Amino acid sequence: MNTAIVNEPRRVVPRWRNFLSTVEMGEFSSLKNATQIYQIPTADINAAKRAWNTNRSLFSAGELLATAIQANDISAAKEAAEFIFRHKDECSPFVLRTAQQVLTYRNQLIIEDSPTEASLWRQPKFDRKIIGLLRRQLSDFPNDSIRWMDLALAYTISGLHEKARRAIYTALSLGGGNRFIIRSAVRFFVHIDEPDLALRILAKSPSTKHDPWLIAAHIAVADIAKKQSGFQKIAQAMTLSGGHSPFNLSELSSALATSELSFGSDKKSKALFRKSVEDPTENSVAQLRWAEDQLGKQVIDHQLTVPRNFEAEARIALSTARWDDTVKSSREWLCDEPFSSRPAIWGSYVASVVIGNYNEALKIAIEGLKANPYDPTLLNNAAFCEASLNKIKEAEDYLSKIPTAITSNENVAVRATEGLILFRKGLRQEGRKKYLEAIAIAQENDLVRQEALALSFLAREEILAGDGFEEAAFKRAEDLVKNQNFIDLTKLLEYEKLLLGNRRNS
Amino acid sequence: MAPPSLLNFIDPASQLEGELLDGRWLVTKLLPSDPNATGGYFSFSYEGIDQETKSSIFLKALSLVSVLKLTNGNVLRAIQGLTNSHTFEISVLDVCRAANLERVVKLLGHGELSVNDPDVPFPLPIPYIVFELTEIGNAYKLHTAINAASELWKIKTLHEVAVALQQLHTNRIAHKDVKPSNVIFFKSLGAKLCDLGRATSEDHLHGPNENLTIACQVRYAPIEHLYQFAPTTRDEKNYGADLYHLGSLCYQFYSSVPLTFSLLSKIPADLRPDLNLLGPLAGKYRGNYLPLIAPVTKALTEVLIDITPAIPYPVRAGMVNLIGQLCNPDPSKRGHPKDHRRAVGRKFSVERYIAQFNTMYSKLKISGLR
């Protein structure tokens, strides 16, 4: 198993959700209020009523319905709606739906006609039908940049990155000045490991230098690309100027705080993190919780309640050893950001290594693999779960898909899983060798956690095999885990201790 | 505002029945205020007879004294504003008459009636304008009469309205208030545009409507007006508004509700304008319009997806495309994309749409739809 992700650096890379969810999260928040130019007259309901009384037709009923709704004249709206309903075969679907809303309302009339794809997006699990729907709509109405971006998201969730890339280029060419379009594109290019392209998109957009949301993205992505963001000074001035609302500055303050933290300026960093959560976005709260893990202490001592706070909740649950809550929050986080590998890695790791629920862990890993079919960590986690369930063929299938170019971290995990498979095949000597190989690589690269993990699972396999090496293997793993205070592995070792006791007794 | 005691008199502008104006216009009947007409706050409408040609006429009499009754604040400015608008409307209508614009309601005459009644405390004159009279009524009446069934009628009317706009635009005039009640019908001549009370003219760059800050009715207003967005060029503001209104009219002919109403319903509540007078359609958004062009484009797509089945198949694709172009949420791109690419000529032109309506009409005829 690979757990390096738990301690991986985190940046305030923009979240990428579908358009409706992004609106709900307030990310279309305007930077300044419009000045009044036009005086808008109130609805001339009496004129519409007179027209209706003179000429009763669907045409005047529609006019009355529109005017009465605007004027909050419910009885007139109902009269028009009833007429429309009686002639429903001649009406457009929208007018009929509006009439239905008027006829069925109870206390407060709220007119909102959700887009056709909304119900599909709102399902707890991603439904691929949405791709077909959006494609059909875009073939008739190709100028809708937001629909292109939603299609790109659907492709990304389905792991179709090249199709997503083309949809993103189209969205950028149609609505390249829009914050939602730019931030979504940036998130995509970070996801497919092309941060330089994300930086170019941000740098090219004329909106970036005025928009704290885009500058925050630039600073975060520059950090990933190991470059210096050219917007640092503007960003600092923006946070000090007081020209923007705390909500609009939330991610920018968070991005600056993360930069300060990486430079070792803890004091400045903490002040900026505090500023970032005055009126926070969900992303800023997650970033703060990550920073608290890095600093080893709380920056904010009160609870921060924001919608879709799944990542932050998963982090808190993990750091307080609430394992079931960690899996639950990771699952919710995965539903919220289905293309992201992190929640799937977290969920599958805790469910398998800490809780020992391999079926649940496998489901989460498979969910994550839909969008990231070649992610080495997810493939390895799936293989580990299958092998732990004694499904050797399936485990080998997953392992065979892992690309050859992987990090040493991933290499340790893959070797260890190979060792596990060999053990379960009955080839204990070869399995042992693989585990020792994994441990050696971890030691060479100073990967203590990976070493502890490999040792712990070697111990498990030795206990199960009962070849006489179990006591020594367990002792070695226990010493390292205790020494490093790896709380997640402590739980695993407790289970192994129990196994070992049973073995001794038998 | 004058003291209440002085305002309890009968408005002389409402008492013109039986009068012979300018020795030619015999006023026969006071009309009830047109339920869908706008700008009728300070005027009375009459039917009459042209004594020279014996044809029917429509007469609009301005009531300057009603300004005294209804205006709170600077009465002199209000009277000046009304007279300026009246003079401007006559001058624009004169241009239309001189150019013989057959799709714009014809100005037959105008003048001023002096008031000599001792019972009227403010004997202000009554300016009037005389127009040709519609024998049929406006689009509402005709739509009712033919029960919205005639697909050919819709296309023919839209074609005629587009021609009317083209004629106005060629004469450097923008109408700026195209809506069903301002489309009137004549038995032999078909549809004409009336009510140039909000028009602007390039020959009167300081005309009274040039900086008009009162938008048209919310349900007809170009969507950006509700977000207080100021177009960047004069053409965008004036001719662009005409294009939006033409697109909205097309939409309304098939859906029965105005486009802006449908658009508002499709925009998520958080992004709708924070305007109390929108009632349940009001939202929370107070910011600039430009960042919302993409979301409003998405809302427009939803609107068009919905309306598509209501449009007869032979003209469906063309009509949906046309509404999408005319009502483009980006005011600078409103109209035909090819017009925006050309180096010279008007970028906000209805010319191509006239041709498109012609084609649609032929397609419908060939398909046998009526």
What does this structure look like?
The complex is a heterodimer of chains A (506) and B (370). Chain A has 506 residues and is mainly alpha-helical. Chain A has 2 domains: 19-303, Tetratricopeptide repeat domain (Serine Threonine Protein Phosphatase 5, Tetratricopeptide repeat), CATH 1.25.40.10; 311-505, Tetratricopeptide repeat domain (Serine Threonine Protein Phosphatase 5, Tetratricopeptide repeat, Alpha Horseshoe), CATH 1.25.40. Chain A is built from 27 helices and no strands. Chain A has helices at residues 19-24, 45-54, 58-70, 74-86, 93-104, 118-121, 129-140, 145-157, 161-175, 179-191, 195-204, 212-224, 232-241, 246-263, 266-276, 282-295, 310-319, 323-336, 341-354, 358-371, 376-388, 392-400, 408-425, 428-444, 448-465, 470-484, 487-505. In chain A, helix 9 packs antiparallel against helix 10 (179-191), helix 23 runs antiparallel to helix 24 and helix 23 packs parallel to helix 25. Chain A is elongated, with a radius of gyration of 28 Å. Chain A starts with 18 loop residues before the first helix and ends with a helix. The mean pLDDT of chain A is 91. The model of chain B is unreliable at 35-40 (pLDDT under 50). Chain B is 40% helix and 14% strand. Chain B has helices at 4-7, 64-70, 75-98, 139-145, 151-170, 223-226, 234-255, 259-266, 293-307, 313-326, 337-341, 351-367; strands at 20-21, 25-30, 43-50, 56-62, 107-113, 126-132, 137-138, 173-174, 183-186, 190-193, 200-201. Chain B is globular and about 60 Å long. Chain B starts with a helix and ends with a helix. Chain B has a 6-stranded antiparallel sheet with strand order 1-2-3-4-6-5, covered by helices on one side. Chain B has a 3-stranded antiparallel sheet with strand order 7-9-10. Chain B has 2 domains: 4-132, Phosphorylase Kinase, domain 1 (2-Layer Sandwich), CATH 3.30.200; 137-367, Transferase(Phosphotransferase) domain 1 (Transferase(Phosphotransferase), domain 1). The longest helix of chain B is centred in the first third of the chain and has 24 residues, at 75-98. Chain B is of the alpha+beta class and 370 residues long. Chains A and B meet through helix 1, helix 2, helix 3, helix 5 and helix 8 of A and helix 4, helix 7, helix 8, helix 9 and helix 10 of B.
